[in-house]
Design goal:
9 helices; about 0% strand; about 240 residues; elongated; mainly alpha
């Protein structure tokens, strides 16, 4: 027992005085209460800044998401109120056009549409997720990983795709797909393989078009075939 306890209470270990024992128990209770109070204060001092910081981050995230919602709602409202507005009409790259030049021109003319993407980037980067959707430094396939990882059957070689579609005019999308499926042979029966090897049949403008498709946006052959045909409509 500490000198302070001995000095304040002078409790004789051999004494059976009920009053002394009551005082001692009271002292222990008060000390326990003081200890709990001190610990509570220390824990509060440590946790309050952490909780406040988390709440602040949450508030900032909520505000940024609200900004995205307002912008998207405003843009959709413009489409609803003015369906003929040129900026909201999907643009098809003709076979006599350079896909890179068309895309750059659209980026310049419709730059305000890309602010939503930049805000989403800011939100994700603020959460510690390092992304750069607008400046992706590498090619990301439009196919999901399930398609990319599909392999030809054991003992079968990968197909040699000879037919190429450039998207520069004088080419038929229907004929190209027909030639491609013939070259693919029995592998064409597997939808994933049919999709996986199709980019190998594209070159120049056509491959540029494919490279700009949204990552993991093509899940079926139909989702690949139809946009391909629409983007390279045969010229009369």
């Amino acid at each position: 027992m500490s000198d302070e306890v001995n000095r304040d209470y002078q409790v004789d270990s051999s004494s059976n005085n009920p009053g002394s024992m009551a005082e001692f128990r009271q002292y222990i209770d008060e000390s326990h209460h003081d200890l709990v109070t001190l610990l509570t204060h220390q824990v509060t001092t440590i946790l309050n800044p952490i909780l406040a910081d988390n709440e602040s981050k949450h508030d900032r995230l909520v505000k940024q998401v609200e900004r995205i919602t307002r912008i998207v709602d405003y843009d959709e409202g413009n489409v609803f109120n003015n369906p003929e507005r040129e900026e909201n009409i999907p643009y098809l790259v003709r076979r006599d056009q350079n896909a890179d030049e068309v895309l750059n021109r659209l980026h310049t003319q419709r730059g305000y549409h890309y602010q939503v993407t930049r805000i989403v980037e800011d939100v994700l980067n603020g959460m510690g997720i390092n992304v750069g959707l607008m400046h992706r430094p590498y090619f990301v396939s439009a196919f999901p990983s399930a398609v990319q990882m599909t392999e030809v059957p054991m003992g079968v070689k990968n197909p040699k795709i000879i037919t190429k579609f450039a998207g520069e005019g004088g080419e038929s999308t229907v004929e190209h797909i027909a030639h491609y499926l013939v070259e693919l042979g029995n592998l064409a029966d597997n939808e994933n393989l049919r999709m996986k090897f199709f980019p190998a049949s594209l070159t120049k403008n056509a491959f540029t078009w494919f490279s700009y498709l949204r990552p993991s946006s093509i899940l079926t052959w139909a989702q690949l075939e139809m946009p391909f045909m629409l983007n390279f409509i045969e010229q009369n």
